[in-house]
Amino acid sequence: MSYRRLGGRRNRGAAWQWGILGFIPGFVCALAVMLAVMAEGTLPAYFLPTPQPQIVQQVVHVVMTATPAPIQQPEEPSPQVLIITATPLPAPQILPTNVPIVVQVQPTVASTSPPTSIPQPTVATVSAVPDVLLRLRSETATIPGGSFTMGTNPAEVAEAVRECQNSGGTCLAQYAQDSYPEHEVRVEPFLMEITEVSFTQYVAFLNLLGANSHQSACPGFWCIQTRNDSELAPIVFNGSSYSIHVGLAQHPVYGVNWHGAQAYCEAVGRRLPTEAEWERAARADDGRIYPWGNIWDNALANTKWSRETPSHYPVTSPEYEFGRSLYGLYHLAGNVAEWVSDYYSETYYQQQAQLGLSVDPAGPINGLQKVLRGGSLNSVPFFSRAVHRQSASEAEFHLWVGFRCAEDAPNPEATGSSDLNPATLGVDVPTAPAVETAPGNAQPTLPPPPESANTGG
Question: Is the distance from CB of 253 to CB of 202 less than 8 angstroms?
């Protein structure tokens, strides 16, 4: 018996019917799932592409200080500063609602200074002079500015040499070589102390600086010697304070080096005068040879020729005695030679003359010595002429050298200030004791006087 498949074509046509029967339930299930997803609200998330993470760069400004400034809560609300820069700050500042806000708009730049909340150091001004020095500071006179002829000429030098030799002195024309030639200079108005700085003023300065200040406080250099350093020095130092014999209190301080003079002037809010300023103060507008005129007068200066008997020599004169200049300054001739701020150069005047008119010249930029002006009690009048130049090392101590201070004029009418009155200085002051020293030669090109070897350190 043989068998054959039933249905033939019919069997092949039934396959698609079974497919339809299987598809319908699957479609219904898929539709039900989609309806459920739509109801949940997350359908877009299944079809959208996965988002890439975004990187946000923010610039953070960090200010580092050695010691963080403490944060203090003010008793009352104070204005806050909100800085808006081109690059957003990392996070907004949350401020109290009752605090006013000050907005400053500025570009984002690297800060070159510390935050304004940190106190900045203040610079001391020349007006901050200690009371003790301010009370003792010398009165000043106003020296008018303007142009004048500085230096000397062969005819004037020849007359000075002849006068010196006729009086028994030893003077040579070569001593004035560094004062040639005459040249035009202009200076601005300035103030200059009427008197040379006294021992009273300088001792007060040393006591303000403290014990042993005379050895290193000017600055880092010796200022002056005491009796402990040289038996010829008049200032006494007892280990804790400085003092001066009452007979020398109102006399000009001597034996002070250039560093000591400059340091004192700065301490009282002033400075040493320039060489041009000093000559302007001594010669005035008419180019006089001496502070009082063109004729030497023994009664108007304290030099070798100013004493009738050797027993009075050599002794400085108090600050108020004689020899006033046209502008009212005492002792610009004789008494003690005076430091100025300029370095010394033997050829400086020649260089200035080649430049033409010089305005407020301040001397060479460096050198081995500093300029001295005005002669001294140890010299003959030739060296006390207002045109004569002297010099010495800035660290040397000479018993014939002192100084006075100057300062810029705040206005043409300025007259300075002080409690000292030159007319009453030295009243009832005992006569100063004689200082036994050998006469020194004030000319810079010759060997210095013997006392210059008495240096400290």
Answer: yes
Strand partners, 149: 184
Run means of pLDDT, 10 residues per run, the chain, 457 residues: 46 59 71 66 52 51 46 45 38 42 39 44 60 94 93 94 87 94 94 96 96 93 96 94 93 96 97 97 93 90 67 56 86 94 95 90 94 92 95 95 95 46 39 38 38 36
Q: Distance between CA atoms of 272 and 266, rounded to whole angstroms?
A: 8
User: How many whole angstroms separate alpha carbon 67 and alpha carbon 313?
Assistant: 64
Strand 140-143 relative to strand 190-193, pairing: antiparallel
Answer yes or no: are the C-beta atoms of 156 and 387 closer than 8 Å: yes
Residues linked to residue 84 through DSSP beta bridges, in sequence order: 105
- What six digits make up the tokens of 129? 């002079």
Element (H, E) at 185: strand 183-187
Domain boundaries, the chain: 131-453
- Beta strands 337-343 and 370-373: pairing type? antiparallel
Q: Are 363 and 272 in contact (CB under 8 A)?
A: no
Tell me, what's the pLDDT at 353?
92
pTM of the model: 0.65
Helices 199-209 and 258-267: crossing angle in degrees, nearest 10, is 80
Instruction: For residues 326 and 292, give the distance between their C-alpha atoms in angstroms, rounded to a whole number.
Output: 7
For tokens 């009048």, the residue is 381
SS3 372: strand
Q: Convert the pLDDT of each residue in 382-412 to its tens digit.
A: 999 999 999 999 999 999 999 999 999 986 5
pLDDT digit string, tens, across residues 428-447? 333 333 433 333 344 433 33
* Whole-angstrom distance, CA of residue 35 vs CA of residue 361: 102
> Cα–Cα–Cα angle for 303, 282, 439, nearest 5°?
20
CATH topology of domain 131-453: paralog of FGE (formylglycine-generating enzyme) (3.90.1580)
Question: Which residues are registered as beta bridge partners of 183?
Answer: 150
Side chain identity, residue 173:
A
- C-alpha to C-alpha distance for 83 and 396, rounded to whole angstroms: 59
Q: What is the 3-state secondary structure (H, E, C) of 95-158?
A: CCCCCCEEEEECCCCCCCCCCCCCCCCCCCCCCCCCHHHHHHCCCEEEECCEEEEECCCHHHHH
Of 449, 346, 351, the closest CA to residue 390 belongs to: 346
